[in-house]
Give the backbone structure.
Amino acid sequence: MTTHTDETTAPDSVAYAPERPARLEWAKHVPEVYKAMVRLDVAARQGLDPKLLELVKIRASQINGCAFCLDMHSKDALAAGESVERIIELGAWEESRHFYTAKELAALELTEAVTVLTDGFVPDEVYDNAAKHFEEAELAQVIAAITVINAWNRFGVTCRMAPGHYEPGQYT
């Protein structure tokens, strides 16, 4: 794990920008909310393929700009056996569809539609496509997972949680 601070330098002696401190340690101040979020997260992941779950979490976190969650879920995806290549390509998944299964593509499309609600409601075509690839109970789990990561992203971005310190499985 590398922590980037004012004094940290790269091997070639180039200094990194200082790490910005968190604005608020929200979990410390509202521990019951944090515990409820953890329980919700555990419940939302039940029965989902860990790789698919992490792809969804990474994509939502990319859209929301949550560096903390990107760090965490990229590391968790790698620990679950996901390839670096597929993680890298998530930012441009529509241009690199050949890296993903039809089911994963449906989940990514649904993730974008649920995450970017400012564009309007989740389109029927997106929902119907996801419904073709997931049984109803599993689809409900995917929607729950998308909803939960969006909530985590909002805590991370608002409180400016610093990436780079997470170790896979740290919170399990």
